[in-house]
Design a protein that fits this description.
Number of helices: 12
Distance between the termini: 13 Å
Strand order of the largest sheet: 9-6-5-4-17-16
Strand content: 25-35%
Largest sheet: 6 strands, mixed
Length: 341
């Protein structure tokens, strides 16, 4: 797991999947020499994301093997290129879902490098050109910072884009996993009235007591759901399971917004569910480097910390299986520095 820790002479050690079984095992590989715009780091921690599972098991149909997953990376800079000015040796830095872009197109100029017209270079299973990293406040514990580089920015980006940062507004979160629990925390920090939708009543206590949500709804309870008709300004779907889009759209107020950051198998709804009430359904990926830095600073200043379970890299395969079973609260983080040797 992870994008590799240096062992000697440019050689790196990671854990890779060799085929669609997704089973991870130690793998040695080489990195290019540090270029003038590069930053090289020793990785300390790496969060485990559901994308790791999708790519290692070729769920999208285009994985290239051997594949070393991991895109919630925190480490310490050990070398910088001659043109690098923002970072220095010894700085803690984070690397998220992509490491480079063309830096010339409209989207890159607007700080939306993840939507680069020529295609952003993914942190794993991408063609590496140059490296780019985002810094974060030194006061923020590095093991807790790792999940922010994917899960955190994935929920923060649409919240800012759709003005889900207005105190007093009503905000629904579908799903209470790695993304959902951070959406709840960020929503509360924005001053929103937060409701969690989940298929599992067992998550009620943790949603209300541990995470501070204002309300909890069992989404399979038709009576509870109908009682909330026209109640929400915003709903963020962080789950990948299928939902009734018509039902959730009915929960929105006039001009309300439903945003998808998960990947349901299909999106199907009646046109009237959008047209009547001038409602919006939208999708969102992660975020650009500028907004990622903004999110990191916001989480630090508001003391927003993900709930994590720190594991050694030797436990990575078991962690992926537990993640499938939703047996984690709420993000695994691999202690790379102390276990990948």
């Amino acid at each position: 797991m992870d994008s590799g820790t240096a062992i000697a002479n440019g050689e790196c050690l990671g854990w890779a999947a060799r085929d669609p079984s997704g089973i991870l095992s130690p793998y040695k590989f080489s990195r290019r020499a540090v270029g003038s715009n590069d930053v090289s780091l020793d990785i300390a921690y790496c969060g485990v994301c559901y994308a790791d599972l999708f790519w290692t098991r070729n769920k999208h149909g285009h994985s290239n093997y051997p594949l070393v997953p991991g895109h919630e990376i925190v480490g310490i800079i050990k070398e910088v290129g001659s043109n690098v000015q923002r970072f220095k040796v010894g700085d803690y830095v984070g690397v998220g879902t992509y490491v480079n872009s063309c830096r010339e197109c409209q989207y890159c100029d607007d700080g939306l490098e993840v939507h680069c017209s020529k295609g952003a270079v993914l942190t794993f299973d991408g063609i590496d050109v140059d490296g780019i990293a985002s810094g974060y406040p030194e006061s923020y514990p590095p093991e807790l910072a790792a999940p922010l580089l994917c899960a955190g920015i994935t929920v923060y980006t649409p919240m800012i884009r759709h003005s889900m940062n207005q105190p007093g507004k009503s905000f629904g979160v579908i799903g209470l996993g790695g993304l959902g629990h951070l959406a709840v925390k960020i929503g509360k920090a924005f001053g929103l009235k937060v409701t969690v939708f989940s298929t599992s009543i067992s998550k009620k206590e943790e949603a209300l007591t541990l995470l501070g949500a204002d309300n909890f709804v069992v989404s399979s309870d038709e009576q509870q759901m109908k009682a909330l008709c026209n109640s929400f300004d915003f709903i963020l779907d962080t789950a990948s399971g299928d939902i009734s889009f018509d039902l959730y759209l009915s929960l929105l107020k006039t001009a309300g917004v439903l945003v998808l950051v998960g990947f349901p198998s299909e999106v199907k709804f009646s046109p009237g569910s959008l047209i009547l009430g001038a409602k919006t359904i939208s999708g969102s990926l992660t975020g650009g480097t500028k907004q990622t830095q903004e999110m990191l600073d916001f989480c630090a200043s508001n003391k927003i910390y993900p709930n994590i379970e720190v594991i050694p890299i030797q436990y990575a395969n078991e962690a992926l299986e537990r993640m499938i079973k939703k047996d984690v609260k709420y993000r695994f983080v691999i202690d790379i520095a102390n276990s990948l040797k």
